[in-house]
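Work through this:
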Amino acid sequence: MTSSQPLAHTLRYMTDCLRFAINSILASKTRSFLTALSMVVANSSVILVVSVALTGRDFVVAQIQGVGSNLVYAYYEPGSNVSPSEADYITRADVKAVRRSLGTRARSVAGVMSTWYPLFINGQERQVRILGASVHYQKVRNLQVLTGSFFNKHDTDTRVKVCLLTETLAQSLFGSSQTAVGKIISIHELQFTVIGVFREGVQTLGQTEVSSDSILIPITVIEYFRARDRIDPLYISVSAEDDVEDVTSLVASTLSARHRPGSRYRVQNLKVILNTARNIAQALTTALVVLAGLTLLISGIFIMNIMLISVGARTKEIGIRLSLGAKRSQIRMQFLLEAVCLSMTGGLIGVIVGISLPLTARMFFPSLTIPIAPLSIVAAFMVSGLVGIFFGLVPAARAATLDPIEALRYD
């Protein structure tokens, strides 16, 4: 016997078993369809659950990164027994000192000064927040200029009276962002030309110095309206994410060294929040995957029960095959392959359904990003095969151990 003969014998053996398995599946189409349907639901659930979890994680992380994952911010924290006249605020000189001390470690450093001014909007007087900042403020806060342009270094150096409006304020005052550009606004009896309309990169819902009704002007101009040189807050955009913690410590020490002993400055960053969000998203993803895994387990048990019922219904058929010389190993392999075929066919359809739904959602909602993890597709399909093997062993073993004489007597 040549070396190729055992291989050919094995292939013929497997082919015969697979043919019997497929014929048995086609002979009971309704039963086979319902059995495979459980794997369709299970596999599509796995992919959809992972996709939903990844979408939620990416959304939360993107929101934080939109504010600035490399962002460090500092502000003066007065004590309960400190009067405004004794407060030791962060100043513009501190901004320059921090910028010098950080050098290339900081991508941008910007301080913000603010005040309030009443404007008549839609016939009613409303307090509008006036923000003064430098040209670095746009980069450090990821501001989006919707129409017009941001002010430049020449504007701040020469104290040009220009301003940018938030999108909401521009619509309230002038009807739209486009028509607002070029208009004049009077602030503290000074005429400001609107050169642009802006908004935050992500919605912070009033949790930052930018409110829905805000006007942004050069920091050198807002000094006209402020009795004190007070920066609140100070922003630093760090060049490298790994350097955020060190820069946070350096900013804190720089501010403390430049002010009176006992003055307190809160210096924080978003890295801890970002890591926490990622951990929460990872835990949520794990929990959802476990639930999807339970669905696969239930599907496997369903396949096993259906196959056991099939063994009972086909007892006489098994007896005839055994009496005609079929080996018990062939019977075992036939029922095992039948379970695997049902499981993997349902798994493949489930994978297609699980991929199709997110892709369909992208077609109708182009702005919606739904990631599809290739690993979840591979894992779902492989698990389908393992489920078929694992839960097909018991029915296959029972079919192979039937006594042919008793099986022939079965009615």
Remarks:
- Residues 7-63+276-409 form one domain.
